[in-house]
Amino acid sequence: MPEYCVTGGTGFIAAYLVKSLLEKGHRVRTTVRDPGDVGKVGLLREFDGAKERLKIFKADLLEEGSFDEAIQGVDGVFHTASPVLVPHDDNIQATLIDPCINGTLNVLNSCSKANTVKRVVLTSSCSSIRYRDDVQQVSPLNESHWSDPEYCKRYDLWYAYAKTIGEKEAWRAAKENGIDLVVVNPSYVVGPLLAPQPTSTLLLILAIVKGFVF
Ligand SMILES: NC(=O)c1ccc[n+]([C@@H]2O[C@H](COP(=O)([O-])OP(=O)(O)OC[C@H]3O[C@@H](n4cnc5c(N)ncnc54)[C@H](OP(=O)(O)O)[C@@H]3O)[C@@H](O)[C@H]2O)c1
C-alpha cells in the first residue's frame, strides 16, 4: 500500500485525513509542531491502525528543511498545515503570512527533494478566489479567478492575502519542479470535532456566538 504524509496532523481537516487513510489500510506519516503535546497529539495515536501504521514527525512551517524527514520516501503528500485564526494584535507577517507562504514552499521543496512523491494535495481556501472588486460581475467564480492581493490589503484580509499568495507560489513552485499538484479550495468546513480541544474553525464559531472579534 502507498504511504502518505499529512502535514499538521493536529488540525481539524488533517485529523480526518489521517483517520481515513489509516482506515483504508495505508501507512501514514503526519507532522506536528510538538509531538510531546499529549493533549493535541494523543488522539492521532488512538485511531484504528495507528499503532502499526502511523508515524508522527516534528516539523514547523517556518523552518526550512523541517519536513524533509517526514516526506522522504512517501508516495503522496496532503499539505493542510497552516495558521488559520490569528488575533489582530499579533505580528501578522510572522504568525500568518510567513508560515502560509514560505511554509508551503518549504513543504513543496521537501517534496521535490524526496523524489518519491507522485502527487501533492494542497488545502488552499475559497479565500484565495473571492476577494476582488468585481466579484458581483464575475459570479459564478471558478478556478480561473483569484483574490486580488491589493483588495485583501485594503480591507485587512490577511488570511485571504496569505492563502492567495501561498497558492500562487505553490503553483509556480510545482511547475518549476515538475510536481503534480492538486489544490482544493474549501469554504467553511464543519462537522464533529475529532480533537479533544477546539480547533480554529470551532473557535471561530464560538467567537461569533460570544461576540469576540478576531
Ligand atoms: N476549516 C475550514 O473551514 C477551512 C476552510 C478553507 C480552507 N481551510 C484550510 O484547510 C487547512 C486546514 O484547516 P483546519 O481548519 O483543519 O486548520 P486547524 O484545525 O486550525 O489546524 C491548523 C494546523 O496547522 C498547524 N500549524 C499552524 N501553524 C503552523 C506552523 N508554523 N508550523 C507547522 N504547523 C502549523 C497547526 O498545528 P498546531 O496544532 O501546532 O497549532 C494545526 O495542526 C488550512 O490550510 C486552512 O487554511 C480550512
TrEMBL record:
* InterPro entries from the UniProt entry: Epimerase_deHydtase, NAD(P)-bd_dom_sf, NAD(P)_dehydrat-like
Pfam families in the record: Epimerase
Q: Please give the Gene Ontology molecular function terms for this protein.
A: oxidoreductase activity, acting on the CH-OH group of donors, NAD or NADP as acceptor
User: Which keywords, in A-to-Z order, does the entry hold?
Assistant: NADP, Oxidoreductase
Annotated ranges, domain NAD-dependent epimerase/dehydratase: 5-200
Q: Where are the transmembrane segments?
A: none
SUPFAM superfamilies membership: NAD(P)-binding Rossmann-fold domains
Which PANTHER family would you find in this protein's record?
A: NAD DEPENDENT EPIMERASE/DEHYDRATASE (PTHR10366), TETRAKETIDE ALPHA-PYRONE REDUCTASE 2 (PTHR10366:SF503)
The family classification in the record reads: Belongs to the NAD(P)-dependent epimerase/dehydratase family. Dihydroflavonol-4-reductase subfamily.
Q: What is this protein called?
A: NAD-dependent epimerase/dehydratase domain-containing protein
Source organism (scientific name): Populus alba x Populus x berolinensis
The organism's taxonomic lineage, starting at the top: Eukaryota, Viridiplantae, Streptophyta, Embryophyta, Tracheophyta
